[in-house]
Amino acid sequence: MKCLSLMANRTFSSNTIIDPSFGLTNSAKQLQSMAHQFAINEFRPYMRQWDEESIFPREQLRKCAQLGFGAMYVPVEDGGTGLSRLETSVIIEALSQGCVPTTAMLSIHNMCVGMLSKYGSTELKSRIMSPLVNFDLMASYCLTEPSSGSDAAGLLTKATKKDDHYVLNGTKAFISGGGESDVYFIMCRTGGPGSKGISCILVEKGTKGLSFGKLEKKLGWTSQPTRAVILEECKVPISNLLGEENRGFNYAMDGINGGRLNIASCSLGAAQWAMEEAIAYSLERKQFNKLLIEFQNTQFKLANFASELLASRLLVRAAASRLDEESQIDSSENEYDNKHISIPPLCAAGKLFATEKCFTIIDGCLQLLGGYGYLHDFPVQQLLRDSRVHRILEGTNEVMQLIISKDFF
């Protein structure tokens, strides 16, 4: 079953304000083109079937890894592709124009592999890095709990050290890839209350005491499995600790800064596709003996959508470039912090603005398509459902506002 698209027989001009290659280097454009072509061939024809039948396309994700997308910003020395955060954002946006939830799962996997590369021990990396890079193993990020969503530092999952192992007890909620992933990055309490008592411990599928809740039925992202991750007297070796004990919250927040930009990039891709569908429809559909595109109301709406999409894209890419700058600067340079906006509020602003504006764009494009936009035969309704959760996950947009506001005092 293929996903019908108004763009199927139309070549969209790249010389427009919503051209996603605007401002990119030639090498970034090549990566974008490769990712977009892959999305059109390997994701888009099956997106509707995956959605309606709740199929998780793991084989297509393995194909992504063959292109180097399994560990995009992991250094080459750790087996990754060694791309910049900006290049990663460009790729994720392009892949999302084939299937948003599949690309989002790839984004989460990359966030985990990036944390492993940056903070993992040599022993831990030598054991599982290569299969993660190749997507023979898939990773899930486990921070949220039933009683601590936005209050992530208040998590209750506990890890008790006993001899040469940890014993974990607790429950993680709304875990993307739950039950399907092979490695779970569990944020758990090894010390006192608050963020300074949290560690990150990797729990592998098949470990005794690890189980999963029921498959959650969701508004969107139906092709991506979401379950609770349950830990009951779950025993793992101390070598599965990521980095240092009681530093896990720092690692989690470091990973999620980039993760927020990745999710924002998924929204960019969804809005780009919705815009292309709306423009194609407006160029073909007639009302009162006029093409829709000839009505000033349509022109004004599309102009606003295009401006908001461009602004969202530029903000996300500016934040991604800022992440790249930090990775190249020696942290001992005291003057650095006085010359740059700090990363957390900038990433939060990118996530807040892009996910809000892109959802509004998609909703407006659906309205332009009228009844057709509401049908499952066309992709815009699925883009709407799949992009709605981006305003919730990786920190709700209300939390993004808190992060930004703390930068003022």
Describe the structure.
The protein is of the alpha+beta class and 409 residues long. The chain contains eleven helices and nine strands. The strands form three sheets. The protein has a four-stranded antiparallel sheet, with no helix packed on it. Strands 1-4-5 form a three-stranded mixed sheet. The longest helix is centred in the middle third of the chain and has 37 residues, at 248-284.
Structural class, from helix and strand content?
Answer: alpha+beta
* C-alpha Rg (nearest Å): 21 Å
Globally, the shape reads globular
Strand order of the largest sheet: 2-3-7-6
- The residue-averaged pLDDT reads 94
Report the major sheet: 4 strands, antiparallel
Strand content bin:
5-15%
Helix coverage percent:
40-55%
Distinctive features:
short-chain 2-methyl fatty acyl-CoA dehydrogenase activity; single chain; alpha+beta; oxidoreductase; 409 residues; Acyl-CoA_Oxase/DH_mid-dom_sf; AcylCo_DH/oxidase_C
Helices and strands, with pairings:
Blueprint: H1 26-43, H2 47-53, H3 58-66, H4 85-96, H5 100-119, H6 122-133, E1 139-142, E2 158-162, E3 165-176, E4 183-189, E5 198-204, E6 210-212, E7 226-237, H7 248-284, E8 286-287, E9 290-291, H8 296-328, H9 343-369, H10 380-388, H11 397-405
Parallel strand pairs: 1-4
Antiparallel strand pairs: 2-3, 3-7, 4-5, 6-7, 8-9
Short description:
By secondary structure, the protein is of the alpha+beta class. The protein contains 11 helices and 9 strands. Helix 4 (85-96) packs across helix 7 (248-284), helix 5 (100-119) packs antiparallel against helix 6 and helix 5 (100-119) runs antiparallel to helix 7 (248-284).
